[in-house]
Specification:
Layout: H1 9-17, H2 21-43, H3 48-64, H4 74-95, H5 107-110, H6 115-126, H7 130-140, H8 145-152, H9 156-176
Length: 185
């Protein structure tokens, strides 16, 4: 089966599952930015730990692509695999005493902020535990509670609780820094 440039990720996923090596290459080329954005949003860009998570995620996807039931779900499935691998990488690094940094996790929230406000928001966001960071990021990206639960492999109630606690913790941290939290919404 020979593939020319297919237009959509689901088409590429279906062709890759059918054994088309060109489609598989195109799929991974198209997925890399999605995986990178998700991993860096949870861990932070420019951090070597994020690069490890990206590479490990791409290997996870390569090894389990045949298990993807519905090719139309390739994007959300890739984000799920990324979130799961990223959390494992964070846990592994914490066990070794490394604390991954997170930078620009909420790019779209920082639009219009002064540089000082942006730094304060990022620093406040760093105080969140990894799962709360992931949930808060995905919710800020517009994903539903159900979608986030599926991506992180947890119950919807867990997502709601993490989001609630994450926002409360973020608000308290912003207030502690002398900032008005509603300025950042």
């Amino acid at each position: 089966m020979q593939t020319t440039a297919l237009a959509t990720l689901p088409d590429l996923a279906a062709a890759a599952q059918a054994g088309d090596p060109a489609a598989r290459d195109q799929l991974f080329e198209a997925l890399r930015p999605i995986v990178a954005k998700t991993a860096r949003s949870i861990i932070g860009p420019g951090v070597w730990v994020a690069e490890d998570a990206i590479q490990e995620t791409l290997l996870d996807i390569a090894n389990s692509l045949d298990g993807l039931g519905d090719p139309s779900k390739i994007s959300s499935w890739a984000k799920t695999v990324t979130a799961n691998r990223t959390q494992k990488v964070i846990a592994r690094e914490k066990a070794h005493g490394a604390e991954p940094l997170d930078r620009d996790l909420l790019d779209r929230i920082t639009v219009g902020l002064t540089p000082a406000e942006e730094v304060e928001l990022i620093e406040a966001f760093r105080t969140l535990p990894a799962r709360q960071r992931a949930v808060t990021y995905f919710r800020a990206e517009g994903h539903s509670v159900k979608e986030v639960a599926e991506m992180l492999g947890c119950a919807e109630g867990t997502v709601k609780a993490c989001y609630h606690h994450g926002r409360a913790r973020l608000e308290a941290e912003l207030r502690r820094r002398g900032l008005t939290p509603d300025r950042f919404e």
